[in-house]
Amino acid sequence: MRVAEAKRVKGLKEENRQLKRLVADRALNLEVAKDLLEKMW
Length: 41
Known about the structure:
It is built from one helix and no strands. The chain is mainly alpha-helical. The chain has one domain. The chain starts with a helix and ends with a helix.
């Protein structure tokens, strides 16, 4: 693997990590919102 490819892979892995964290955060927020709505009704 060339240096440029290795740098690209490293960048993609970091982006993937950030996106996974974002999705997990949104999923948690959605669950909290659902719980709150259930308690209101």
